[in-house]
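pinging the channel bc i need a second pair of eyes. not urgent but kinda urgent?? the chain im working w is below, pasted from the shared doc
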Amino acid sequence: MDLKTFTSAVMEIAEERGVAQEKIIEVIEAALASAYKKEYGKKKQKFEAELDAKTGKVKFWQVKQIVDKDMILAEDEEVSEDKEKVRFNPERHIMLEEAKKIKPKIKKGEELKIPVKTKEDFGRIAAQTAKQVILQKIKEVEREEILKEFKEKEGEIVSGICQRVEQRVVFFDIGKTSGILQKSEQIPGEFYKPGQRLKLFVLKIEDTPKGPVVFLSRAYPKLVSKLFELEVPEISSGQVEIKSIAREPSSRSKIGVTATEEGIDPIGSMVGQKGTRIWAVINELGGEKIDVIEWDEKPEKYITNALSPAKVLEVKILPKNKAQAIVPNDQLSLAIGRDGQNVRLAAKLTGWKIDVRSLEQVEKGEVEEKETKEEKEVTEKKEKKEKKEKKKAETKTSKT
């Protein structure tokens, strides 16, 4: 077995799959140690190998654990939970006194590496075993690398190329693996075609028997804020902060922002010169409308801003997290929006249940309330009078 050629071939495979060379050398060394044991070793023996990837030369050691008399179990003694206690086996263990003759400073519990004769002539079965171990280990390492990389990317944006479009799922090439864009995470009305490059939000990664699966999204609200992070340097530097976001994919989004430093215009930073920044995000989302709202710690002010582009006259804070927004008569339909979208997104953005009323409705409501109160007073007086007359009649009857 030409180890130099073999190692080069394995390294090429590792490089193609994006696996670190150090990991691959460890894998090959483990496989060679396994092959050495199968060909030349005995049962219970443990071997280690060290490979020089440049020359293809390999060294082997037999590994034994250092034990002393206190660590050895007697023949009639049962194995206890004490991990230090072992049943002595000359193939796996060596007494401390013997080990010190080879390495004077060694201590009990440590491992001693004893050099063994280097062998490169492995039989067909041993070589086949080594090959299987290497291929299996490469898959495991590759799997671990993908899991580690995309675990770190959860909640972030990746760039993907559309590979395949199925009825309810779209597959994207996102680097070392493929990502899945399910129907529920697609933007309504958005079409995907092979070769198309898009920005995608990494929802989560799951380890399955078939390998790691990366779940992607184009509809998740945070995709909008992450796209703005790419376009707006003030967000990365911490000068502008995104406080909240409300989104109805393919239609409209509202995003609440604030400046953390004086002299910074948060809305201007998000929009950019001549709208370049916001248009870059809108184009990435296929023309989805985006309203940038200035966040305010006062709920009345924030709700007023959130109902933009409608003008708001007054906001009343009511119990149970409710708020009433009063708008001019000609602004009512604009404040509510088509199918209630504007007020619905404003409610999601602010976290308040918003009831939008026109000035006319409020005034009419006050008049109606006043009329109802007067009617109630008249009814009460009438009932009181009737009761008094009835009581008087009853008294008169009893006297008779």
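so The mean pLDDT is 85. and The first strand starts at residue 47 and ends at 51. — does that match what u expected or am i reading it wrong
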